[in-house]
TrEMBL record:
Its cofactor is Mg(2+). The keyword Repeat applies. GO terms for molecular function: ATP binding; DNA binding; DNA ligase (ATP) activity; metal ion binding. This is DNA ligase. Belongs to the ATP-dependent DNA ligase family. Keywords: ATP-binding, DNA damage, DNA recombination, DNA repair, Ligase, Magnesium, Metal-binding, Nucleotide-binding, Nucleus, Repeat. It is an enzyme of class 6 (ligase). Residues 334-472 form the ATP-dependent DNA ligase family profile domain. It comes from Dillenia turbinata. Its main location: nucleus.
Length: 599
């Protein structure tokens, strides 16, 4: 039966789940669907479409909204300048007829598709859909992907295509958590997924809901969902939470979480989203082979780039950037060990795991370091720099460690209960993180709003973020006339506050239609397309000044025209118009802000 189940059946389930408000009803409807259509137990073919973000069997599509828009325009044979094509390219703001759908790519696409596809279901089966999605993921160029999309369009109606687009974008917005889906499928599904990150295996192993599965431990070669840190506001809150425990405080490194799995000569680097990163092999495999002293092992840590000229870790965190640097100075800081020899050690205390880490890894300066309160990376810290890890005896120890870390321009600190075991996907507070962006470490900076970006989802069709600029020094007794783009400030204002700023600026928005154009002459920006806002503010005197407070640290910026940008998103303290009057949020005027607020 399941082989021939039509995709339209799943679409009816999706539509129903999306409309229903009750989580319990959504769950039971999902169960009924499985019991009716999947009695033979081939659950994976349907569940991978319901939890697309967890499916690692077919690789990545390489299709985010903008590329998907281009492919759909080609697949539908539309001219790039046609009204519908422009609507797809500008999906965040929508067109005159799609105001309500703006910000939701799948809805905008389905509106465009409705005008071209019939109402009747194309009769596509779930099996056929999976095969086409496999082809879409393996397509090597845009043209191949476009062909698959046009095939899909022929075999579906606009409703079905809308859901397929959501599957491709890996977000179904069904209003039901991944945990609920797992629990409804099988009581042990989530646990098994956490230690294997293998949806197919979970679906195949747990076919019988009544048969409980013995808790499985982690295995070398299978990524495990990482232990996570709970956010705390300050050192006092952190200390209170870990009261009575032995506590280690560690530097929070600003790289990418990586699990290194060594199985003899086979080495895998799994990211937080359980993707394998073979690009790290080139820089790291030899180091791992020579410096991990056991045959089989899993290390948990952070992948960073060591800058040999400054003798510091480089400031960035994206996988791509790290990959680019892979040939230069990749460095792994292992802060935990999960498996050694032939045993999982996650059930041992952190203190015991630290000892094991010391025995198993021979550190190599600048390439593979271990983070321990005594020894390890601490021994390699440049003189005069604070240690990277220490045992805290009091809240004062935590405070002063945190202060040193901030002064040293690091990302923050992580506090860990030394008696705790390592638990996959746990964020219950065994690890706590404290970051400087929650305090006002920086001084205020007045910046001018020079552009706006359309939001998505709830903020679709409206400006929801701003591009801000710094004034170039003006001649004595004159107002500044030129502004250099500085950073982007994001969401975080309450809806009313955002609304007030947008309402005030709206009359002065100058649309920056696709393809994006140059800014008004008052603004200096780079050629980087990431910086281009959707609207420019007509002229500086019509705009609003934001007074922002941020973490003291800046980063070198290639995206914005100013050579430095803020390392963390800033807080907005108050908003006033560029003629100097401070608005305290009356009516539709700028918002009232007494306390600094992050935007
Ligand atoms: P953030 O954006 O703050 O890094 P996150 O959601 O990615 O948060 P969290 O679990 O909240 O992840 O914070 C822990 C993250 O911090 C880890 O995933 C890891 O990448 C990073 N990290 C850096 N240094 C450490 C450390 N010493 N111990 C644990 N995690 C660390």
């Amino acid at each position: 039966m399941s082989d021939e189940t039509k995709f339209s059946v799943l679409v009816s389930l999706f539509n129903w789940m999306q409309k229903s408000k009750s989580s319990a009803k959504k769950r039971s409807k999902f169960r009924k669907f499985l019991d009716t259509f999947y009695r033979n137990g081939d659950y994976f073919s349907a569940i991978r479409l319901i939890l697309p973000a967890l499916d690692r069997e077919r690789g990545i599509y390489g299709l985010k909204e903008s590329v998907l828009a281009t492919c759909l325009v080609d697949a539908l044979g539309m001219s790039k300048d046609s009204e519908d094509a422009v609507r797809l390219f500008n999906w965040r703001k929508g067109g005159p007829r799609s105001g309500a759908n703006a910000g939701n790519f799948a809805l905008v696409a389905s509106e465009v598709l409705q005008r071209r596809q019939g109402m009747a279901s194309g009769g596509l089966t779930i099996k056929e859909l999976n095969a086409l999605l496999d082809r879409l993921a393996s397509g090597e160029c845009r043209a191949e992907k476009t062909l698959v999309l046009s095939d899909l369009i022929k075999k579906t109606n606009a409703q079905e295509m809308k859901w397929i687009i959501m599957i491709i974008l890996k977000d179904l917005k069904l209003g039901v958590s991944e945990r609920s889906i797992f629990h409804e499928f099988h009581p042990d599904a989530e646990d098994l997924f956490n230690v294997t990150c293998d949806l197919k295996l979970v679906c195949d192993k747990l076919r019988d809901r009544r048969q409980r599965h013995k808790r499985q431990d982690i295995e070398v070669g299978k990524p495990v969902r990482p232990q996570l840190a709970m956010r705390v506001r300050d050192a006092t809150a952190a200390w209170k939470k870990l009261q009575g425990k032995d506590v280690v405080v560690e530097c929070k490194f600003d790289g990418d979480r990586i699990q290194i799995h060594k199985n003899g000569t086979e080495i895998n680097f799994f990211s937080r989203n359980f993707l394998d990163h073979p690009e790290y092999e080139h820089g790291m495999s030899e180091v791992i082979m020579q410096n991990i002293l056991v045959d089989r092992c899993i290390l948990d840590g952070e992948m960073l780039v060591w800058n040999t000229s400054t003798n510091r870790f480089a400031e960035f965190g994206s996988n791509q950037e790290i990959a680019k640097a892979a040939r230069e100075g990749l460095e792994n800081v292992a802060f935990d060990i999960l498996y050694a020899g032939d045993t999982s050690v996650i059930h041992q205390s952190l203190k015991e795991r630290h000892e094991l880490l010391r025995k198993v890894v021979k550190p190599l300066k600048g390439r593979l370091e271990i983070l321990l309160p005594n020894g390890g990376l601490n021994a390699h810290c440049p003189s005069g720099e604070p240690p990277c890890s220490m045992i805290a005896q009091s809240v004062d120890d935590v405070e002063s460690f945190f202060k040193q870390i901030i002064e040293n321009r690091d990302e923050g600190i992580v506090l860990k209960d030394l008696g705790s075991k390592w638990e996959p996907s746990d964020r219950s507070g065994k690890w706590l993180k404290l970051k400087p962006e929650y305090i006002q470490a920086g001084s205020d900076l007045d910046v001018l709003i020079i552009g706006g970006y359309f939001g998505s989802g709830r903020h679709g069709g409206e400006v929801a973020q701003f591009l801000v600029g710094l004034a170039e020094r003006a001649a004595p007794n004159t107002y500044p006339r030129r502004f250099v783009s500085f950073c982007r400030v994001g969401t975080g204002l309450s809806d009313e506050e955002l609304d007030a700023v947008v309402t005030k600026l709206k009359p002065y928005f100058r649309k920056n239609e696709y393809p994006k154009k140059s800014p008004p002459s008052f603004y200096q920006v780079t050629n980087n397309s990431k910086e281009r806002p959707d609207v420019w503010i007509d002229s500086p005197e019509k705009s609003i000044i934001l007074s922002i407070t941020s973490d003291i640290r800046t980063i070198r910026s290639e995206v914005f025209a100013a050579p430095y940008s803020l390392r963390f998103p800033p807080f907005v303290e108050l908003v006033h118009s560029s003629n100097g009057t401070t608005h305290k949020g009356t009516g539709t005027e700028a918002p009232q802000e007494s306390k600094p607020k992050r935007i």
